[in-house]
Design a protein that fits this description.
Blueprint (H helix, E strand, L loop, with lengths): L1 H31 L6 H28 L1
């Protein structure tokens, strides 16, 4: 049971890290394309996308933990 919980925790953290990296990459690509994106907007966009995908990952994992 503890191993399963640790596995689910690692899955959620891995997915959230992947999505944070993807959102950071999107903001960097936008800034390289010449769009005026400052650091605060990059940070807010990264946090917003990361939180949304973290919630998505948690919703995907909840049925696995129940069964």
């Amino acid at each position: 049971m503890i191993l399963r919980s640790l596995l689910m925790f690692a899955l959620i953290m891995g997915m959230s890290g992947l999505y944070f990296a993807c959102s950071w990459l999107v903001t960097r690509l936008l800034s390289r394309a010449g769009l005026p994106v400052d650091d605060m907007e990059c940070m807010l966009l990264t946090v917003a996308i990361g939180v949304l995908f973290l919630l998505t990952a948690m919703l995907a994992v909840i049925p696995l933990m129940e069964g």
